[in-house]
Amino acid sequence: MCHSTDSRPPALENPGEVAQDGMLELTSADGTAFSAFQAIPAEPNGVNIVILPDIRGTHPYYQALANRFAQAGYTTAAIDYYGRTAGVGVRDDQFDWKQYLPSVQPDEVAADVKAAAEHLTKFNTGPVFTVGFCFGGGQSWRLSASDLGVTGVIGFYGLPKLVNDVVDDISAPLLLLLAGSDVATSQEEFDAFAASLDKAGKTYDMHVYEGAPHSFFDAAYDEWQEACDDAWSRMVGFIEKHSAKVPA
After folding, report:
1. A Pfam family this protein belongs to (predicted)?
2. How far apart are CA 162 and CA 33, in angstroms?
């Protein structure tokens, strides 16, 4: 797993107010009820974010992350992957994700992201970006090849193997934020993924944080605070750049 239940994302220097937050139950197009955590900013900036967690689902790190995004003005929801198998609920240390993860299918993840995005557009009709971590990072990048109409996709230390079969269909720009000392994916795999994107002529930005461990985007890692700040800055820049291209 990436982030434990006591991990928390880096704090913002000047956080805004969150108008409302909390767990909710959404329904996918196939009728599946699944859990999500929403965070609605008091002063929205016009952009929607759907967070795709690591293999743990909607555990506390991603609830806190949704609030961080809302504090920055983004209308945000973090989704859970296990509505079809484990039902709705918060994922804590007792949740046995290992028995359910093999059943998670990319098309079902896309359907749940679509439901979350549609929910967010009730508050804000602006563009939608996805942000994922590890397993969710690969799923986020993969959504660039979907028909959801996402404006951009972001992944932290994602899994290229979840995307390699759809590279030719990628349409939305990608942001790859990678750990130089990732134990889940080798740098060679990331380099091969970048080469395949180059060969296919796809738009992407990639940054490797040399020496950083898998799951470095964590308030507990004081030595990686600069990397965390830089990653946040790159996310904001990526979102602003590609939001500006969306017709008003």
Report:
1. DLH
2. 24
Query: Are 202 and 133 a contacting pair, CB within 8 Å?
Result: no
Phi, psi of 95 (to 5 degrees): -75, 125
Which string of b and e fits 92-130 if b means at least 16 CB within 10 Å? eeebebeebeeebebebbbbbbbbbbebbeebbebbbbb
Q: Does the model's pTM come out above 0.85?
A: yes
Query: What single DSSP character describes residue 147?
Result: S
Pairwise pLDDT comparison (171 vs 11), residue with the higher score: 171
Q: Across all residues in the chain, what is the average pLDDT?
A: 93
Choose which CATH entry (3.40.50.10750, 3.40.50.1820, 1.10.260.40, 3.30.1250.10) describes domain 18-244: 3.40.50.1820
- CA 206 to CA 210: how far, in whole Å? 13
